[in-house]
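Possible race condition, two jobs.
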Amino acid sequence: MRAQGKTVHFAGITWESGSFATEVLRQILEKGYGCKTDVVPGSTAATETALAHNDVQVWAEQWTGRSEITAKAVASGSVKLVGDTLPGGTKEGWFVPEYVVKGDSKRGIKPVAAGLVSVTDLPKYKSVFADDEEPDKGRFLNCPTGWDCERVNTRLLKVLNLDASYTNFHPGTGAALDAAIASAYQRGAPIVFYYWGPAALMAKYRFVELKMPAYNDACWKTLRDESSTSQCASSYMVSHVTVGVSTPFYDADPQLVSMLGKVKFPMDFLNSTILEMSTKKLDGSAMATQFLHEHPEMWKQWVPADVAAKVQAGLAGA
């Protein structure tokens, strides 16, 4: 056990759900198992590389199938992925506000695209989502340039023959993407956009996901591969969320690894947690402390009774 002196180094994850999960696990290790922990800052690529070299021991929110660095480290045996922290996996796709399809009688909004079910229906509704600058086309709100999803969406627009009827609009940042969706939603305006879960807006607003062609592994690879010259359509891959641990840590600390393998945060819970973090400006550490106080019914399932008692005592003393 690392309780005998060695510090457990956690990767510093910057997005809300990742920083929350990191801080929950750190507090359980410190209060329940007597470990020393710290957080190693750096880009995703840098901290994933550090994990592969055992300079970092724990990466709290790994999305499977999204990192070549981690995939290589797992294949070479230097990293292990444990648990399934988000039951059912991640959600990514193209969405519209629910009122676009169903209306909203409370807000006096009539449905403007009642028949919109699938991405293949979008050309029929291009005037509903008209682009301010090119009004003869609809506007599709993509991810910021440089994001992995931006490249996938750009290729999907082409493969689905939607680039003839929709402009490919890029917000400058993730915050600008959120602001554009929130602004349209508050005005009751139609908007079609890429989004994902877990995320705050998924808890704040009601969205309808548009159907896409079925997931196809070979097509998905062509959509993500920079060098591929011909793409085919696929839904977004559902990533499983796991905890990445360095193999030396995995071998040395089976007790801690067993606990990490039991961690679970349901999607709705995570969405509302991220929303609370963003609206109340709480960091991962403050949110983790609140979670440990308010949801013992969740985290006590991950640890033995004696460890749970120590965590509770640590919370009472804090």
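Job #2 (started ~2 s after job #1):
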Amino acid sequence: MKKYVGVLIFTISMRCSVFAQDSTLLAMASTKSQYYEVLSDGGSDDAAALSKEMESRFEVYNRLFHFNPQDVTVPFKVRAYKNKQDYDGYVAARLGGTRPGVVYLHYNQPERRELVIHRGSPDERSMLPHQAFIQYFRGFIPYPPSWMREGFTIYFNTLTLDAPSRGATTDSIKLSYEENLTWLDTVKNLGDRAPSLQSVLLADITGIPENFQGASWALVSFFLNGGQEDYFRIIIESFMLLSRSASAMGNSESVLNHISRWINLDTLDKDYKTYVSSRKTFTQLLEEGQKAYIAKDAPTAELSFLNALNLKPSRFEPYYYLGLLSYDEKEYEMAEQYYRSALQYDADQALISYALGINAAAAGHTIDAIRFLEQAKILAPERYQERVDEYIRWLK
């Protein structure tokens, strides 16, 4: 009798567990788009916004890879939880432990693969670009060459959803991208410890070398941004050689054979090292521009600031210094545009107000000049009150 009671209790427990899972599933809003199926416990608006974001990411990725969407037989699945307990429970049930923020669950069966997100978590914004690309890449090529997987994941890690758009209507979804140079200093400082080019390309065949992750990013950056058409063409052609059914080793061999067929690997290695050593970080470009500006070398300063702006168009510093250069050249309208752009990217409002005031005065717009200068004094009297009062007396 005790045996049957135990079985009955176990059966009831199992039914309650299934019912609880079904209830959670029923409580999640669902939406299907062209390539994604999204489930969210945050409601239909959150599911729709996330679906649009993922479709936008897919579009950006596929502009480069040009994979055939028909090769994906089931939609990419995304499951989003605003409730941390539900997120942790779902991930732990599949991995034996939880993971922060975002995790991609990859299985041999495509229908089981899914991206699981803890919406609103501190790690979501930084981890979603990483895991979203892995889901896309492995959805088409389950076992790509390791250097491609690591390198392109880092490359796309700065493809982010504009912060003001998160949680807004689906029509306002906007992605932005800045080249990811977080590994540049590390790779440049490796020196003799840097893995050889061939060891990176052969990692799935001969073993993963030390410092592989950064070197993989550098190799991807070299192929895409090195400025040599032959190298860009070769990497694009390599994507077409990747096979859905091949192992990572098989795909690596196919890509390596294609590269070595067209380019001598020693030449490739030399060009790669030259590229890495020549790349400059945002900070380096900014410092070079500042030194050139102080030395009154305007052409060099402008080039440095423009290159810094190309790297990080959402940083205010290049706009501010380009504004100063334009002011020095008496291009006052251009200077004002640069200063106003700097304001859009969180520049010190008092600093920019003062710059706008001096610029307006030089352009002969006295009323605007006084307005900007007074604003600078109000925002930071300890810095600008004395200077502003003296300058306004001179203007009057």
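The chain has three domains: 27-140, 184-278, 282-395.
Logs attached separately.
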